[in-house]
Specification:
It contains 18 helices and no strands. It has about 425 residues and is an all-alpha fold. The protein has one domain: Growth Hormone, Chain: A, CATH 1.20.1250. Helix 3 runs antiparallel to helix 4. The relative contact order is 0.17. The mean pLDDT is about 85. This is MFS transporter.
Length: about 425
């Protein structure tokens, strides 16, 4: 399948914010935060829980606002404007992470929360652009390629960080804290450069009619959608299933590094593991798109959920570096593909002219699940004193999501 210029611009937005995803959310900031918190006298278990709480709280604001923001973006020429607003919030506050003094770990968490709002809000409008750049037949391949290229972009930005890490800050020019700050600046710059084509040229092909007061009209449209939600039976049940299983996917992504540190794995080794996971995720994300065309999106999504259920159970036996490697490789095989196909599966269900409004509901359920998951891990970790048990507790969310999706999904409609 040959992609158009607009599809490549859309795909490279995933490449662009992948630097934030791996350097800030997953690899560096969790370790950096635990280091500065430990220096301030905060225990390892408490700092892991606080990191989970921060991720939960950081998604709350955008979760509450997502349907309204999505509805506002459905008016003519609005989607790109909102994409720009939240993308720049994320970029500016990512730079802010590099400016916060080392001693102020509380402020570091606050700035991170703000950057998550920008990152998550940008992804809402980016996701809804899928209906503008691809038709129903193309969606699985375009969405999967976006995730795959995102992982490849993450690998390249991560390698630049690793060069700084393994050369002791480019030959001693940077200390360990400065290397972390360099990574935050790198993530922001990466985001600006590769998101710019879509931020500048993104074209919205579907929209609702222009009105005098978009805010009031958006509220009315949301109320009308909720009132007639029974008209969207399949879409509603998919969102409920998605709420549960994507919770586990996002939580494992955000908590993996902190759990690795609790197992006593050295920072450099954690960085190498994450790099390999990104490399594995690149081809497997694209493979998921190919499988969706061969055996159906429905079956491929179910396969991904089952793999993640097994990952959670495997977390119970995490004791050694080898165990962590096995778990990481399993995550790499399914993380991007499951997310990509969920996005395209939903994209085929929504009314095209109101895609941002409906992706707002998709976003709110995804983000509210991202509040629940880290909260569960944080509470179970504090209660048991073992972050591996906290990770294993996520298996119940995958089980619930699988059952609901398997029972309610319609092969005829969406495969």
């Amino acid at each position: 399948m040959k992609f158009t210029k607009q599809q490549w611009q859309w795909i490279f937005y995933d490449w662009a914010n992948s630097g934030y995803g791996i350097l800030v959310v997953t690899a560096v900031l969790p370790v950096y935060f635990k280091a500065v918190a430990s220096q301030a006298g905060v225990s390892s278990t408490i700092s892991t829980a606080l990191w989970g709480y921060a991720n939960s709280f950081g998604t709350l604001v955008i979760s509450v606002l997502a349907p309204l923001l999505g509805a506002l973006a459905d008016y003519p020429h609005s989607k790109r404007r909102w994409l720009n607003i939240f993308t720049w919030i994320g970029i500016i506050l990512t730079v802010g992470l590099a400016i916060v003094p080392v001693a102020q770990w509380q402020l570091l968490l606050i700035v991170y929360i703000g950057s998550i709002i920008g990152y998550s809000g940008g992804n809402l409008f980016y996701d809804s652009f899928l209906t503008d750049v691809a038709d129903n037949y193309q969606m699985d391949r375009v969405s999967s390629t976006g995730y795959g290229m995102g992982y490849l972009g993450g690998v390249l930005s991560f390698i630049i960080f690793l060069v700084a890490e393994l050369t002791d800050g480019f030959g001693g020019l940077l200390n360990s804290y400065e290397i972390a700050r360099f990574s935050f600046l790198l993530a922001a710059l990466w985001w600006v450069i590769f998101a710019w084509p879509l931020l500048r040229d993104g074209r919205q092909h579907y929209s609702v009619e222009k009105v005098q007061n978009p805010l009031v009209d958006s509220c009315k449209r949301i109320r009308k959608t909720l009132h007639h939600i029974n008209k969207y039976h399949q879409l509603t049940w998919f969102l409920i299933a998605y709420f549960f299983y994507i919770d586990g996917v996002d939580t494992i992504f955000t908590m993996a590094t902190a759990i690795g540190k609790d197992l006593g794995i050295e920072t450099t080794m954690l960085m190498l593991v994450l790099l390999i996971v990104q490399l594995i995720a690149f081809p497997f994300s694209i493979l998921y798109g190919w499988l969706a065309n061969k055996i159906s999106a429905r079956r491929t999504i179910m396969m991904g959920i089952i793999i993640y259920f097994g990952i959670c159970l495997y977390a119970l036996r995490l004791h050694t570096l080898t165990d962590f490697w096995i778990l990481a490789v399993l995550v790499g095989t399914s993380q991007g593909g499951l997310q990509a196909l969920s996005r395209s599966y939903f994209g085929r269900l929504v009314p095209k002219n109101a895609s941002s409004e409906f992706f707002g509901f998709y976003n709110i359920l995804g983000k509210f699940s991202a509040i629940l998951g880290p909260l569960i891990v944080g509470v179970v970790t504090q209660w048991t004193g073992k972050s591996t048990i906290g990770a294993a507790s996520l298996s119940v969310l995958f089980a619930i999501g699988l059952v609901i999706f398997a029972v309610s999904s319609s092969k005829k409609s969406c495969d």
